[in-house]
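Weekly sync, protein design subgroup
Attendees: M.S., D.O., the rotation student, P.L. (late)

Item 1: inverse folding check
M.S. brought a backbone from last month's batch and wanted to see whether the design step gives back something sensible before we order anything. D.O. pointed out we never logged the input encoding, so this time it goes straight into the notes. Structure tokens as presented (252 positions):
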């Protein structure tokens, strides 16, 4: 349930048929790596000396962790996916992700008609549905062994703690950039700018991995290199093309 587009917005993402690294001209009309004119002002006085680069920024839902929204949550409510989309409130999840409302207010406004439901049961359903995307934990282990700096860069509410409780992502990366704690959501450009300011590196020294092209495109607008995630094997290939070599014996 990475963002409202997946959790509560009527416009829901669909599986993607391509996977591209967006730090160089593509074989398609879209070039996702476009230097921002404002980069010089962002990175003034920033230093990356004595710091291993690049810094890796991972979206979480459907990039690192399975999103339970498509199957588990409709089943919890005894609905089809389309029925759930039709009767939910289209704005409450966005507000929850940005930390503007708490979970009790979310429960009051989850459905358009204000019906009651088992909030704790929903949270349990979600937690049961969280699991690592196939092969991703092994990749994170290898990257961690190679001392890469890794951060979550994700749209998610305070319930990110449910993911942490079950999967212990903090063994590999920091929950540094979560919409709940920053009050901003991808693809808001200011959220990306805040990431760069916080890390104090040139944007080109960051690689952002996300399963949604629009989020990757937004990263490119501030000069962050982007990877459109489809599966872990292709991600490994793209890392290799970027000079991030991960030997297989380090994945064990």
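Designed sequence read out in the meeting:
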């Amino acid at each position: 349930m990475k963002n409202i587009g997946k959790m509560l917005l009527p416009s829901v993402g669909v599986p993607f048929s391509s996977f591209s690294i967006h730090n160089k001209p593509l074989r398609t009309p879209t070039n996702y790596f476009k230097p921002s004119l404002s980069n010089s002002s962002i990175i003034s006085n920033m230093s990356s000396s004595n710091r291993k680069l690049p810094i890796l920024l991972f979206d979480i839902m459907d990039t690192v962790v399975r999103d339970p929204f498509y199957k588990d949550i409709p089943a919890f409510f005894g609905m089809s996916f389309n029925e759930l989309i039709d009767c939910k409130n289209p704005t409450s999840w966005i507000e929850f992700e940005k930390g503007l409302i708490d979970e009790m207010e979310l429960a009051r406004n989850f459905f358009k008609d204000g019906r009651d439901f088992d909030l704790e049961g929903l949270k349990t359903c979600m937690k049961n549905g969280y699991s690592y995307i196939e092969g991703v934990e092994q990749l994170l282990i290898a990257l961690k062994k190679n001392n890469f700096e890794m951060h979550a860069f994700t749209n998610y509410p305070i319930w990110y703690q449910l993911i942490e409780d079950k999967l212990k992502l903090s063994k590999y990366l920091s929950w540094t950039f979560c919409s709940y704690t920053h009050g901003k959501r991808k693809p808001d450009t200011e959220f990306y700018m805040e990431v760069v300011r916080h890390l104090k590196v040139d944007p080109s020294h960051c690689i952002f991995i996300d399963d949604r092209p629009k989020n990757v495109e937004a990263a490119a607008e501030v000069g962050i290199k982007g990877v459109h995630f489809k599966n872990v094997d292709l991600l490994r290939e793209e890392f290799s093309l970027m000079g991030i070599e991960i030997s297989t014996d380090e994945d064990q």
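Discussion: DSSP finds 13 helices and five strands in the chain. Strands lie at 55-58, 150-154, 174-178, 206-210, 225-228.
Action: P.L. to compare against the previous round before Friday.
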